[in-house]
Write a structure and sequence with these properties.
Elements lengths: L1 H6 L14 H22 L3 H6 L7 H25 L3 H35 L6 H4 L1 H19 L4 H13 L3 H4 L3 H5 L3 H19 L5 H22 L3 H11 L1
Length: about 250
């Protein structure tokens, strides 16, 4: 029995923190599932009455917009899964599909915001549409910049995946904003920043330090978000002149 015990293999201990731990291995895949859950949760409040069974029916472009941005969430999960299963070659191959999808999403998002803005004004007779236009426009500009940097630094894996993570989280205000309380108190940006902060926690747990991409991007994002919310909430005259021309 002693001989058997000495020859038996010892199962390595499972580590949660540090490099190679469970948090390090599964964080981005878990975040991709969290993003999907937030999108489903948020849009479940409005998708039926504002799209599936909307009266009057919404413009067809809204369906393409929803399909493209839903595809991005699925793509984010798929790419995270490929990295988790060490299929880096396929991850890089399908990355070109992500580049094409993101290239479509930005102009599609801006165009949809204009089309839906005109629809809300002229068909639904809603107010405040012109001042709110700055929110989706900011989303698209921020996403375009972060994604472009991720493509530029795609060979630096840590930079690349953090920038993709932040860019994707930046789109979550559309989901959080579907919750009445969050929207009425202008908390949608704070909610998505909370998801990004999980990446900061991951860095502290895994690397014992915060990566420079968070140290630079988060303060810039927060300042820009505060400016956007102030411009929207105060209905700044300079922005209304721009938005009214765009919306006709």
């Amino acid at each position: 029995m002693a001989t058997v015990s000495q020859g038996a293999s010892v199962r390595p201990a499972v580590h949660f923190t540090g490099r190679g731990g469970l948090i390090d291995k599964y964080f981005y895949f878990a975040m991709s599932l969290l993003v999907a859950a937030i999108v489903v949760w948020g849009f479940s409040h409005t998708v039926d009455q504002n799209l599936l069974h909307a009266a009057p029916p919404r413009p067809l472009l809204l369906w393409f917009h929803g399909s493209a941005f839903s595809a991005w969430v699925l793509f984010f999960i798929f790419q995270s899964a490929l990295v988790r299963t060490h299929n880096v070659k396929w991850h890089r191959f399908f990355g070109w599909f992500g580049l094409g999808l993101a290239t479509v999403m930005v102009p599609l998002g801006i165009t949809t915001s204009i089309v839906m803005g005109r629809f809300d004004i002229h068909t639904l007779h809603e107010t405040g549409v012109d001042s709110f236009l700055i929110v989706p426009w900011y989303d698209m500009v921020a996403f375009a910049i972060l994604f472009s940097l991720a493509v530029l630094w795609r060979k630096k894996s840590e930079l690349h995946r953090q920038l993709i993570f932040i860019a994707t989280c930046g789109l979550l205000d559309a989901a959080f904003g579907r919750i009445d309380y969050i929207f009425n108190h202008n908390l949608y940006f704070w909610c998505l920043d909370g998801v990004i902060l999980l990446g900061v926690v991951r860095d502290l747990v895994v690397n014992r330090r915060i990566h420079k991409v968070y140290l630079v991007s988060l303060p810039v994002l927060i300042v820009c978000q505060m400016f956007v919310v102030h411009t929207y909430a105060s209905a700044s005259a300079w922005w209304l002149r721009i938005a009214d021309k765009v919306l006709g």
